[in-house]
Design a protein that fits this description.
The complex is a heterodimer of chains A (206) and B (167).
Chain A lengths: L14 H11 L3 H23 L2 H21 L8 H22 L5 H13 L4 H13 L2 H11 L5 H7 L4 H21 L6 H4 L7
Chain B lengths: L12 H15 L14 H13 L4 H6 L1 H30 L13 H19 L6 H16 L6 H10 L2
Helix pairs in contact in B: 5-6
Classes of the chains: A mainly alpha (206), B mainly alpha (167).
């Protein structure tokens, strides 16, 4: 596993990303490579957070970028200045579709993959903490989890999140605060000896 | 990273930081595949799989495209053919001159009278046995004939009545 590259991310509304997008839409492979370098890892992380499967998360990232390339070339991208919310809307929809599909056709290897991923994560973070966090995230509502993951994994700013989710900035900030407080409460709950999360045993980390 | 920590409640910053670490771990969970022809890193493989789309020669699109596009194409052609046939049929039916309804009040008074007689005769024959009522039938027919052949509109009748009543 490789670490996420530290690249400077230009403001999605800025002139730099706009010029890169225009160049890519004209078939400039260097510009396209720059877009992939800037955003592929973030899309992957968002998919990985939800699906816990690096192969599927990579497939989703490829699919999102294939859609993006097709839209750029075909003139389908018209939201100038709102690139990141637009990109992550595509990614979120793709992840949601995949979640629906896996719920309909669950695979027997999912638990193995989750265990494998957690061992890898344990190299960097205490396993108990990772397990608690994953469990707590799983207890959040879909909308709370979406806000948190888009912000941390997608690295969207609050303004971009508000744009993407079509909500006023104040509402979005309140929503994020509530979700974070819930997450904290759930994680503290797992520290209690009689907590339902701990009693559930195998449920933690799923 | 476009995250502004000052917008986070101080009591929640630890949770926020933990999430940040988890996000980094997820981002780093991408496979490294040395020797993979498409590239070792996630970015290499995404770039390799999608760069062709920029020149409309994407292997991704090519792989999932032709078969399904072909199938959808055929389905669309069949649907379009059915729609065209249905549309043409509808147009022909709507443009065809409708058969004139059988009405007693024909524009030709003589023809109308003849029709009245015919209808009355038919009704009488169906309703009643022939019991010497031919005279009555003929009388009724003559009266109707007179009514129809007289140049007097039905719509004029009420206004005449009204004028008689002084309304």
């Amino acid at each position: 596993m490789n670490a996420a590259p530290e690249s400077s991310i230009p403001d999605s509304g800025g002139a730099e990303i706009t010029s890169v997008l225009i160049a890519a839409s004209k078939g400039d492979e260097t510009a396209w490579r720059r877009i992939v370098d800037l955003y592929a890892r973030r899309v992957f992380a968002l998919a990985q957070a939800r699906l816990r499967n690096p192969e599927v998360a990579e497939e989703i990232a490829q699919s999102v970028f294939a859609t993006l390339a097709a839209k750029l070339v075909g003139g389908g991208y018209t939201e100038r200045g709102k690139f990141e919310p637009w990109l992550f809307r595509i990614a979120s929809n793709r992840i949601r579709d995949e979640l629906r599909r896996t719920r309909r056709h669950p695979t027997t290897h999912d638990s193995e993959r989750i265990a494998q991923t957690q061992v890898q994560e344990a190299d960097r973070t205490p396993p108990e903490q990772v397990a608690r966090l994953r469990w707590a995230l799983g207890q959040l509502s879909e909308t709370d989890r979406e806000v948190i993951e888009l912000r941390h994994h997608g690295q969207l700013s609050f303004a971009q999140l508000a744009e993407m989710l079509s909500e006023p900035l104040g509402t979005l900030l309140a929503r994020h605060h509530r979700a974070l407080a819930k997450l904290k409460g759930l994680m503290e709950q797992t520290l209690q000896p009689e907590s339902p999360g701990m009693r559930a045993g195998g449920r933690i980390g799923a | 990273m476009n995250i502004h920590n000052e917008q986070i409640d101080p009591t929640l910053r630890e949770t926020d930081a933990m999430l940040h670490r988890a996000a980094r771990a997820d981002a780093g969970a991408a496979r490294v595949l040395p020797g993979n022809p498409a590239g070792a890193t996630l970015e290499d493989r995404v770039f390799s799989a999608t760069k062709g789309v920029l020149n409309n020669t994407s292997p991704v699109i090519a792989r999932i495209g032709p078969e399904s596009v072909g199938r959808f194409g055929t389905a669309w052609k069949i649907a379009a053919a059915i729609a065209v046939i249905a549309g043409l049929g509808g147009a022909i039916v709507s443009l065809r001159p409708a058969t004139a309804p059988t009405t007693i009040a024909s524009s030709d008074p003589n023809k109308a009278a003849a029709e009245v007689e015919l209808v009355l005769a038919a009704v009488s024959l169906l309703d009643e046995p022939l019991s010497g009522n031919f005279d009555q039938l003929a009388e009724d027919a003559a009266r109707l004939h007179e009514l129809v052949t007289t140049d007097r509109s039905y719509s004029a009748e009420p206004s005449e009545e009204k004028s008689k009543q002084g309304v």
